[in-house]
Design a protein that fits this description.
Chain lengths: 122, 277, 146
């Protein structure tokens, strides 16, 4: 059952990615269309920190990070393991991908949390 | 302008040659011969061997698309030599190479052993849990035409191996079960007489199983019998996903057994009318 | 006569089997594009996390990097990424549905000329690709002419 479960998650996160990435695009790249501010304004430091301090942003980005990382790294692991290799090397690839994924997730979460807890006026 | 697909003419055959006793890598040889309308690639090869190149090797048997021996890479597509007409290819140069993704034994002969091994690995037979019933049957399994329709398309596989030659995943992954075996796994799990999903899971629910199919569709394009292995693989994925979340076939599709007495009665019921002469 | 030991020649296509779609069907090209855009997107995502983590180095570092990204070259790269994401997402929706066995029709006795699940879901493929092209063009217009 193992591979079916892994693959099912690969599919289950797709709706999450589509919705959250859509939101991310709307906020960051289509600010002129949706919010009436220019892309440059949406990207300046104060605005970015301001956005990052809302709970919804915190949840959005951590969820998007987890979903996109799982989807992307599962796909990447599939591509790498389709190359000819011994089962032992395949295991090493699996473990490496999991470690890389966890590390990036931890780092991304840290950056998001850093923004969320940025001292006001500091 | 005459039609290139029917006009008999001289055709150049670029044939990939490889003699394992002499060569370390294959090389190409060119031959020219007259081709008449309706001539298949296999017939052209026979003529070539008879008239020009007696050492040319390939594997073929039935010459009518049933045995699945003569799969070749003709004009960059895996095809059965016996089902492919030379003039229908529409080119003046016809390239013939052995099937890719297999070891090349000699000239146009691929080593199909991995295909057969993978086929065997997915337990391509009906698994019925009651072994006593199998050994000494008390009746017949019932199968409606609709139940048969669920999988009958996939029973047409002739194990020619063209699908593995077309598959991009097989191109790098020697362990990937491949379209043929996976479609056969579906053919048996979808059979209402079969209840072997649990026994097959260890063989098919693995990394090198159905999820390395990304629906490139090349296998279904190559299949000379319309088996559509890509379709079988997607249906197998669905069956596996449903099974993993407990929505698989509840009763492991064990068909009712019709007692032998009823079988006899049924035969009598549908017996032909009595002879009149 | 010859001392060479008789060994078969490894005729596996390797990576060429991934990237060279040759005379195969349209979906075989989509497979390639899906794979390439997928790899591009995951590579970008990792870079993007690093790049946005730059905020922790303060206002000056952040504004400097954002100024760089406002250059036309980066706008083009951004647009290529957008196009890749849209293609990957929409083709992914097609794969999501078809890989679970939907839109492929039902199994039936093969009668020549054979139909296949690939051909049967081609209208869906075309609609999805048309939609992707439309979004990529519209997205580009609002990106370049806000």
């Amino acid at each position: 059952m193992r591979e079916t479960r892994l693959w099912s998650w690969h599919l289950l996160v797709i709706p999450i990615i589509i919705v959250l990435l859509g939101l991310h695009f709307a906020i960051m790249h289509y600010a002129p269309v949706f919010y009436g501010v220019s892309v440059e304004e949406a990207r300046n430091f104060e605005t970015m920190i301001e956005r990052g301090k809302s709970v919804s942003q915190l949840v959005l980005y951590i969820l998007l990070l987890a979903a996109a990382l799982y989807h992307g790294l599962y796909g990447l692991r599939g591509i790498i393991r389709e190359l000819p290799m011994t089962p032992a090397l395949g295991k090493i690839v699996d473990i490496t991908v999991i470690c890389v994924g966890l590390f990036i997730f931890a780092f991304g979460t840290y950056v998001t949390w850093w923004t969320f807890s940025y001292p006001v006026g500091g | 302008m005459s039609d290139k697909t029917t006009t008999p003419r001289e055709i150049t055959f670029r044939v990939r040659r490889f003699d394992p006793d002499v060569d370390t890598a294959p090389h190409w040889s060119e031959y020219r011969q007259h081709v008449h309308d309706g001539m298949t690639v296999l017939e052209a090869l026979h003529q070539l061997k008879a008239e020009q190149e007696p050492t040319l090797s390939w594997r073929s048997s039935c010459r009518m698309g049933v045995c699945g021996s003569c799969g070749m890479f003709v004009n960059d597509l895996p095809q059965l030599a016996c089902q492919t007409q030379v003039l229908h290819l529409g080119t003046d140069v016809v390239t013939i190479a052995p099937l890719p993704n297999y070891d090349n034994v000699k000239d146009l002969v691929p080593d199909l052993a991995p295909l057969i091994e993978k086929h065997a690995a997915v337990k391509p037979y009906i698994i019925y849990l009651d072994q006593i019933e199998i050994d000494s049957p008390t009746g017949e399994f019932i199968q409606t035409p609709d139940q048969r329709e669920e999988f009958s398309q996939f029973t047409h596989c002739i194990k020619c191996g063209l699908c593995l030659a077309a598959c991009p995943t097989v191109a790098t992954d020697p362990l990937f079960l491949g379209p043929q075996a996976l479609a056969q796994a579906y053919r048996y799990t979808a059979d209402n007489r079969d209840c072997g999903m649990k026994e097959r899971i260890s063989a098919i629910d693995i990394f090198h199983g159905p999820y390395q199919c990304h629906l490139a569709g090349a296998c279904s394009q190559a299949c000379p019998k319309g088996v559509d292995p890509a379709f079988g693989i997607q249906l197998l994925k669905r069956a596996l996903v449903l099974d993993s979340i407990g929505f698989g076939k509840k009763k492991p599709s064990v068909a009712k057994i019709m007692p032998l007495a009823d079988v006899v009665k049924a035969i009598e019921e549908f017996a032909p009318p009595p002879r009149t002469v | 006569m010859n001392s060479k030991k008789s060994t078969a020649y490894n005729n596996r296509l390797g990576i060429k089997g991934w990237v060279y779609a040759g005379k195969y069907t349209f979906e075989r090209y989509l497979y390639l594009a899906h794979r390439l855009t997928g790899m591009g997107l995951i590579a970008y995502m990792l870079l993007h996390i690093l790049e946005t983590a730059n905020r922790m180095r303060g206002v000056v570092a952040w504004e400097g990097l954002m100024g760089l990204f406002a250059l036309p070259l980066f706008k083009m790269i951004e647009y290529a990424l957008f196009a890749a994401a849209v293609f990957h997402a929409l083709n992914g929706v097609r794969l999501l549905m078809t890989e679970l066995g939907f839109f492929l029709g039902r199994p039936k006795e093969p009668v020549y000329p054979y139909s296949s699940s690939i051909k049967r879901h081609r209208p869906l493929t075309y609609i999805i690709m048309a939609l992707a092209s439309l979004i990529i063009i519209l997205g580009g217009s609002s990106l370049f002419f806000p």
